Amino acid sequence: MRAIYLDCFSGISGDMTLGALIDLGLDFEALRAELAKLGLRGYEIRAEKVRRGGISATKFTVEVDHRHPHERRGLSEIFEIIDSADISERAKSRAKEIFDRLAEAEARVHGVPKEEVHFHEVGAIDSIVDVVGTALALDLLGVEKVFSSPIPLGRGFTRSAHGTIPVPAPATVELLRGAPVRGTDIEAELTTPTGAAIASTLASDFGPMPPMRIEGVGYGAGSRELPQQPNVLRVVMGELCEEGLLTDVVTVLETNVDDMNPEMLGYLMERLFEAGALDVFFTPIQMKKNRPAVKVSVIARRGDEGRMAELMLSETSTIGVRMFEARRLKLPREVVEVDTPYGRVKVKVSRMGEVVKIAPEYDSCKEAARKAGVPLRVVYEAALKSTSG
Question: For the whole prediction, is pTM greater than 0.85?
Fold first, then answer.
């Protein structure tokens, strides 16, 4: 399986992503031809070799003709542009997922429904080209899976259509909920909302580079020079070593509770998942004086333990939380959408050698079952059959 690793040591943006993929070997003219199918007017794309901190990289630029009228677009208008284009369904799906996440983030920031969001920079031609271009590039390169390093964030302030805003931009922070990030002292916007949307939507895992046989490396240049380090995004492409296991380190939090209403624990679980917990589970235990109790266990990304501990302390009767780090070994996995008689359903597929494990996603099956008015098990079985077939 061909995969790419986004090595975001200086952040990520839409133009850096496309620049790196072109530098990696993407046929620029093939990309231009595919983008032309969107039917957008008043722009031109360009790719040129530059140097950033001594590293040769490709700078991708969208040149917009400002004499041409450009309208503000909402999510439905952008979806219409994508759906009407004669491009692959996989590219359409990836691009729409990215824009959907962008709309959700903007909606949370501005306190409006997702359907009422009208994009400024994001809805402009250059960002449509960046997002759809990235989806097309992955298709042209035959990339099936995306991994990413933790995302670095700059600091300071920047100008936007809404005026002066802090760095990272509010939408960027919303988009990176649940993803591992790190702060820096660099006074620049290292990661843009478009870059954050691309990474958080497409990456199936954040952490070290997975085991792979490297086929190529590309560098995409940012717009400015950074005095501290090369302002480039490195993308590594290769074939995943299927016998290799993915590995990462997580924080495990535990506490024992024997004196509270168990109904409250259900609410705690909801809050923890909303805050980005990877997993939450309850174990019945026997404590001193023969008291039946519950051990609350939370698995979280490193860096999220403070937020999780605060929730455990505030939402339960406990007065202390245990924390320790644990190393995980995981099978390579991906989430795919399959067609069933009851609609499209998401399925998690993991592999170990020739052994394939298939697990339909519960929420996706539940939604399809409710819409079709059939039992959940019927949708579940149909998803298994579609994936296996």
Answer: no
